[in-house]
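**Reference record**
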Amino acid sequence: MDFAFGPEDERFRAEARDWLAEHFTGPFAALKQEPGGHPGEARGNMTARRAWERELGTGGWIGLGWDRTDGAYGNRAATLTQQVVWAEEYARAGAPGRLGHIGENLLAPTLLVHGDSAQRARFLPPIARGEELWCQGYSEPDAGSDLAGLRTRAIRDPGEGTYRITGQKIWTSLAHEADWCFVLARTEEGSQRHHGLSFLLVPMDQPGRIEVRPIRQLTGTAEFNEVFFDGAVARAEHLVGGAGHGWRVAMSLLAVERGVSTLVQQIGFAQELSRVVRLALETGAAEEPVLRDRLVRQWAELKAMRWNALRTLGAAQNPNPNPARDSAARDSAPNPARDSAARDSAPNPARDSAARHSAPNDARDPAPRKGAAHDLLPGSADPQAPGPRDPGPQDPGAPSVAKLLWGGWHQRLGELAVQVRGAAAALGPARWTAGRPYELDAFQRLFLFSRADTIYGGSDEIQRTIIAERVLHLPKESRR
């Protein structure tokens, strides 16, 4: 496939760059993104960050690439390459991680496929305007990566026509800021596993019925939460996909989350790698042969991820349909591998990470040192970098392969950032005080947060099980 930018794309780029130059100023400039951050992070002025979401919505920059069959919902049309252009320019401006990522890139595509016209009309315009934030109610404490083992229940009140939800969710990113939560709950008494689940849209402003408790992370922030539902109310018309069909809806959303939302993040990864390489050049660490080899390997693996993303996107455009493979991907029947694999990607910096849906910094390389380590500095983003689209049903293993690739790669980048700094990596950027006892710099945050990259969004073990059983058709693991 040809992802070269044409004249229309360059005009779109100029429009995006001009808009960001005009609007990402004043109080918003203080929100400039740092490496190692992610959208759900509890740093920065949340009032200003919500205002920035509304600013993006007013400009029509939310929901690029949404299916416009049933309406535009306030956003602008954009081709695949134009979506990449926007991601590049957004990153080049240093704009902040997106608080609205979950609503825009997870819920909206799900409603466009499974929602009815009333649900799309009610929920998509506020998302496109940047007015309503969402969180995801999937993972539970006793279920681990086994989403089908969830226990949260939603009981239908025949008199009021509402559902009463009782249970607990965990690792819920942005629950402390969200206006709404999409919740997977058991609605059929006595049902087990993937049967009897429903996908409900629940307002978070229910004092006494919903309690949010922040979970403090290694980075010192508390972007993830436990959420307790004690008779929380969801209206019957906010049931998506029909009663008992929540598993099908949930699987559709997870395919978007694991496969689509991670594609453009490579542009942001290139930006982070640029900073690590520059640091290695500045400190002389790049002259160490072993470390230099790791820098080269990191660069090469990032390129491999780009080409794998291109392959996936090319398959989604259906150049060579494979009926047997497509049928397997569309199969929504019970599947033990899928049962154990599906889970809330809770703190997905990729899902919760519009910051990484951005482009490499186009700053020029520093003066060459001995050797050519500066050749590793990513330049402008590859025009082949894919946009936030559903990889489609053609390759059921593509999302799992992508997750395995980027999770391990980003974790190793965090380790590399610390190694490049040497002993200085153990020191904070400022003297700790009683008022600010836990101060980290950007590379320390990158290292600490990336420890979770191979766990959230479906652990590496879960992804390998999916590939083994659903793609390679190896004997299924015993699940007694």
